[in-house]
Amino acid sequence: MKTLVWLQRELRIQHHPALEAALAESDDIIVAYFHDPEQTIGDANTAWLANSLQQLQQDFKAHDGRLWCLEGNFEQQLDHMIQTYQIEQVFYTFQLGHPFKTMQQQALNVCQRYQVALRAFDTENWLPYDQLLNQSGRPYKVFTPFYNTLSQKLSELLPFSHAINSLEKTARTICQSGQDQTLPQSLTHLSTRPWARKVMQHWQTGERQAWEKFERFLNEGLAHYEQNRDFPAVEGTSQLSPHLHFGEIHSRAIVFELLTLETEPGIANQAIHVWLRQLAWREFARSILWHFPHTETHPFQAKFETFFRPLSEADPEQVKNYQAWCAGHTGVPIIDAGMKQLWETGWMHNRVRMLVASWLTKNADIDWRAGAHWFNNTLVDADPANNTLGWQWVAGCGVDAAPYYRLFNPVRQSEKFDAEGHYLRQWLPELTPYSSKQIHAPWQTTPNEKRVRPIIDLTESRQRHLEKVATLKSLNQIH
User: Fold this and answer.
1) Angle at 243 between CA 241 and CA 248, to 5 degrees
2) If exposure means fewest CB atoms within 10 Å of the residue's CB, which of 159, 214, 322, 466 is most exposed?
3) H-helix or E-strand spanning residue 465
4) Domain 302-474 superfamily per CATH
5) Which residues bind FAD (predicted)?
6) Per-residue model confidence as pLDDT tens digits over 29-39
7) Domain parsing of the chain, residue ranges
8) 275 annotated to a ligand binding site
9) Per the annotation, does 381 bind a ligand?
């Protein structure tokens, strides 16, 4: 039986059910990644992907295997491979969102054309989402009951076998002669641009690096996670999100490790459960996108479809505000620091993500989709499920969302979570002369200094948002 294992976002060797099944059932195996330039992803994702694929190629080579990387129209490339190598079955891992939905449909079309078996492994989540339903048999729309059900079912998690232990047997068939192992040119070109290189200087990709980071967090960060996670100047989070997004480490494998650490009641177990609950938000986001795929581009609550103004070139002032937000030039220090961190590293602290999203959607009155688009292009961990849930949560139009009338006060948030201004000074060194008390709202200290004044008055924009809410309520457009 000749089997193709098609990789998408599960760039690892261990804990890989599709690869494990192929090793168990087939004598001839090809493991391949298809890069289709027409199925675009964000620039930061592209940079990470290129580096991760290079590392994965080395990992396969270390075990006498080979990872093929092919470029071009996916449907045509898959068609060619099936014909050329007489592929009899294709294994892949089901992925959510764009562009995977399109490619998975194309794979079905090609396999049906040649009567090739296509087998999807829905294994990137902790448990099948059709098993995580409420008493009415419907998907959860609120996180807490979802998490309660999920946590009660953790004992049902299926164990992993280790594909790495049996990989060597595939060498004779994976190493087909004449197959180019270099990365696709378009992928290499995008990932070597100056901005991409700058971002990737802050990261190490790959399965081994992901596990090392996880172990380091367990040993050095987990015990203090609950106390430190909300403070952007402190390295209080695991920063495993891009590794999880690209499948360099499986979230279920992390859960298994955490559960083995639960030895006796105490502070350690409390820390485990706090972090486990945060990891479960990723599962909740994926469940929502799985059950409600339209939410990737439309608000879960349809009544908010036109609540926020779409970004339009017909409104130069709006475009100017959006561009200032992207560049970190809003004049609000905590907002600008977050956007500078994003542009420099491809990552932003989660607390600050909420603040910059609130400013854009409510102070600037710009549609959440414009912000989600920028995040999708610049975050190395840009994930269709997490990105959508996060933006709709802040905008107030998603599931289990913050109230649509609620605005974060960025100055108060900055004072609370970066009291000494360390985070602000790191990303906005021009504010170093200001004291820890002044730095959060420097325009209050030097009101005549134009460069430190916000481009949008926070008080006035808050009032405008509340008036807009009141007007729509009076028209019964929202409740």
Assistant:
1) 150
2) 159
3) helix 458-474
4) DNA Cyclobutane Dipyrimidine Photolyase, subunit A, domain 3 (1.10.579.10)
5) 225, 237-241, 275, 381-383
6) 999 999 998 88
7) 302-474
8) yes
9) yes
